[in-house]
Amino acid sequence: MRIPAALIAVLFAVSAQASPPGAVDDMDQLLADKGLLARIDHVRHSVSEKASELVVTAIGFLGVPYRRGGNTAETGFDCSGFVRAMYQQTVGLILPRKAEQQAAATAKIDRAELQPGDLVFFNTMRRAFSHVGIYVGEGKFIHSPKPGAEVRVESMGVAYWNQRFDGARRVQSAAPETPSLQAAQATDPAVR
């Protein structure tokens, strides 16, 4: 039996609410009886592990040179090629090739909601979503910045990045089923 992700999220939120010590409310009992508490816990750990694994994998590519259109460590990375490669290698999801397509194919979140593994976008070329990186935590992100530079970690609080911050997005585990990713796949054969 496959449980929809939305239901798991609601059940997790409901089960996470505090109850008096020693009290077992009806919802907790129902979830336990159906075996859903273990599944919710497994999903929570799985998501956390994937985000951590993604960040660790990305850190392993520090120093790889920037290359326009690059999408491998051997050839170098541009910003969106780096993000795409990290998600494909670590999570098994194939994101669109361009930064603006990646923004369109992912869920918008507030900056205050950022978690490791989320995507951060910047306006570096006088157009929305012209640069992308992966949030690593503590106000920092990893990215492949520009020609002549290498994959590196930087603070989003630095004036340059803070002024150009364009939004944050979260890659959903069901991303291949999202309409915006399907549209990107239809227009960009490299996404397939």
How would you sum up this structure, described in words?
- The strands form two sheets. The chain has a six-stranded antiparallel beta sheet. The protein has a two-stranded antiparallel ribbon with strand order 1-2.
- The chain is built from seven helices and eight strands, in the order H-H-H-E-E-H-H-E-E-E-E-E-H-E-H.
- It is globular, with a radius of gyration of 19 Å.
- The longest helix is centred in the N-terminal third of the chain and has 24 residues, at 36-59.
- The model is unreliable at 1-23 and 174-192 (pLDDT under 50).
- It has 192 residues and is an alpha+beta fold.
- It has helices spanning 5-16, 26-33, 36-59, 79-90, 99-104, 159-164, 179-187; strands at 71-72, 76-77, 107-109, 119-122, 131-137, 140-143, 152-155, 165-170.
Explain the layout of strands and helices.
Layout: H1 5-16, H2 26-33, H3 36-59, E1 71-72, E2 76-77, H4 79-90, H5 99-104, E3 107-109, E4 119-122, E5 131-137, E6 140-143, E7 152-155, H6 159-164, E8 165-170, H7 179-187
Broad structural category: alpha+beta
Q: Describe the sheet with the most strands.
A: 6 strands, antiparallel
Q: How many extended strands?
A: 8
Q: Distance between termini?
A: 28 Å
Q: Which key terms come to mind for this protein?
A:
7 helices; two-stranded antiparallel sheet; globular; 192 residues; alpha+beta; 17% strand; disordered N terminus; disordered C terminus; 40% helix
In short:
With 192 residues, this protein is an alpha+beta fold. The protein has helices at 5-16, 26-33, 36-59, 79-90, 99-104, 159-164, 179-187; strands at 71-72, 76-77, 107-109, 119-122, 131-137, 140-143, 152-155, 165-170. Helix 1 (5-16) packs across helix 3 (36-59).
